[in-house]
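Hello again,

I reread your note about wanting to compare the complex against the isolated chains. To keep things tidy I'm splitting this into two emails, and this first one only covers the full assembly. Below are the input lines as submitted, including protein chains and any nucleic acid or small-molecule components. They are followed by the predicted structure of everything together. The single-chain runs will come separately.
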Amino acid sequence: MNNPWFKYPFRFVVLMLLQVLVLNNINLGGYIHPYIYVLFILLLPVRLNKNLVLFIAFFTGLTVDYFGNTLGLHAGASVLLAFARPGILSLFFKPIDFGKNEEVSLLKIGLGGFARYTFVLVILHHSALFLFETLDFSNFHYTLLRIGLSSLVTTLGVLIVMVVFTKKK
Amino acid sequence: MYNLLTFLRQYQFFALFVLLEIVSFLLISNSYSYHKSLRFNAVSDLSGNLFNNYNDITSYFSLKIENEELMAENATLRNSLASSFALTDTSFAFSDSLYNYLPAHVISNSVNKQYNFMLVNKGSLHGVEKEMGVISHQGIAGIVIGTSKHYSRIMSVLHKNTRISGRIKKNNQLVNVIWKGENYQKGLVNDIPSHIRLNPGDTIITSGNSLIFPEGIVIGTVIDQTIPDNKSLGEATLAFCTDFNSLQYVYLIKNKMKPEQDSLINSNVQ
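Full-complex prediction:
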C-alpha cells in the first residue's frame, strides 16, 4: 500500500469515480457543487518536482472534464491550483520539514493547518472554475455565491475524507 | 536565442504554467459555441460505457415512476392513433411519414452547469445524426451535437447557447426561447412583439421553422411577462414542461425531409 506506483493511481481512480459518478450528480439549489477530486493534487508529495505537479494537475482536471463535457475548464483551474500550491505551502508551513516523499498530512500539520491549506487553494480553484464557466459578469453575485458555498462544502468534504482515512496512532 | 533559452530555464515553472493555461483556454473556447461544438465534438465509447454500467444499476430506483409515465404516454398515443379519428379527406395525405422517432435511454445528464449536456445510448449505428431534435414525453429536451458508434451527445436546452424558435400557441406569434443559466426549471422567452400580452399559463410550442423540431412540441408555460417600457421587444419567464433533472427516456427525431429542405434553403442564398 505504501508503494507510490500503486498508491497514487489507486487514489486517482477512487477519487475520479467518487467525483464523476456521485458528486457530479449533486445539485443543491444550483449553488453547491463539491469538487473533492482536488484532494489528489493537494496530497501529492510536498517536494515533488513542481513542473511534474503542473502536468499531473492538468491531466487530473482533463479527466474530470472528459466525463463532465467541460473540456479544458477543470484542467485550467487545476493547473492554477498546482501553480499556487508551492507558494501556499511555504507561506503556511515554512518551519515544518517534509521528508523526500512525504505528503501534507493531518498528523504533520494538524486539522487546523490542513483546513487552512485546503480552503485557500480550493477558493482559488473554484473561483477560476466558476468564473470561466460563466464568462459573464452580469450575474456576478450569483457566481460569487456559488464560489463561496461550493468552496465551503468542498473543504468540508476534503476534511471528512482526511479524518476518516488517517490511520490512528 | 540563447538569452531566451536561459530566460525560459529560469522561469520554466511559470512558463509551463502559462503554456498549460493557454492549452486549457483553447479547449474551453472550442466547447463554448454551438457551431464549434458541432465540429469538434468527439464522443467516445469509453465514457459512454462507464455511464452505461452505472446507469444499469441506478435506473432500478426509478422504475416505478418510469412505468407510470410510460403508461400515461401509451394512453396519449392511443388517443392519437388513426383509428381514434374519423377519416374525412385523404386526398392531401402524405403517403410517406415525415418524422421518425427513435427512443433512447439517457445515461448521463446534468442540470447544474451553465452548459449542460446529456449522453444517450443510441449512436450512429442506430441512425443518429448531428442536429437531430430530442424530446421527452413531457416536451422539448435538446439537440444532438455529436455521435459515436453507440452513443450520442446532446446539447441540453439548459445550455447558454441554446436558442429555440418557438410560437405562442394562442396567437401563433413567433418568439425565441433561451436559458440564462440559473434555475433549471425556468427559461426565458424573448423577442415578443410589444403589443402582445401574455397571461400566466400560456403555452409556448416549437415553431417548426428550424427543421430540427416538428411544429407544436411543448416547450413550456409562461410564468410572467415583463412589459417593455419603450418600443423594444418584450420578455417573459417560462416554466419548462420537461423536468430535466429526472430525464430518463427521450426520443430522437429524424426529419426525413431535411436534406430536401436544406438544399432548397441553400439554393436560395446566392
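For quick reference: Chain B is about 30% helix and 30% strand.

B.
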